[in-house]
């Protein structure tokens, strides 16, 4: 008999995508789940603090950042806009879970963590981070930091999210 069940990576990433549909930020819907062994210990998405208006009510709060990047050996200033109204999914996940549950756990997150989230996850007891969509802006520094912390950091390359969880967002 062929085992047609979903593998665990697909199973937990599907849940992360389901959770991401709760997000009300028009720019990015991110979901994250905490897994200990095969047990789901927490879910979170990016959103404004409880009781505060979210992006769908008050609009995104756009902040423009400038960062220095290397392009063909030359330093270039690159402007980036991001929404700062929301607490990122990974940070909400840390706010809603206990340290003791996180020791040795895995985080599945729909999007590659930004620098701040990766930094916080690195200090949270989590030993593995699995993501699907790339966020190239911070990849280099996030990867080298997580490598030196010996945290497993991997992308699900062949994964396909459930169709109903994909909402069109403006970038
Ligand atoms: Zn927003
Ligand atoms: Zn983040």
TrEMBL record:
- Which cofactor does the UniProt annotation name? Zn(2+)
Instruction: Provide the active-site residues from the annotation.
Output: 90 (proton donor)
Q: Where is Zn(2+) bound in this sequence?
A: 88, 114, 117
Domain spans labelled CMP/dCMP-type deaminase:
7-150
- Mind listing the UniProt keywords for this protein, alphabetically? Hydrolase, Metal-binding, Zinc
Q: Which GO terms describe its cellular component?
A: cytoplasm
Q: Does the keyword Zinc apply?
A: yes
Q: Taxonomically, which superkingdom?
A: Bacteria
Which example biological process does GO assign this protein? Answer: pyrimidine nucleotide metabolic process
UniProt KW Hydrolase keyword: yes
Return one GO MF term. zinc ion binding
Concerning CDD domains, the annotation shows:
deoxycytidylate_deaminase
Family designation: Belongs to the cytidine and deoxycytidylate deaminase family.
Which protein are we looking at? CMP deaminase
Q: Which organism is it from?
A: Paenibacillus crassostreae
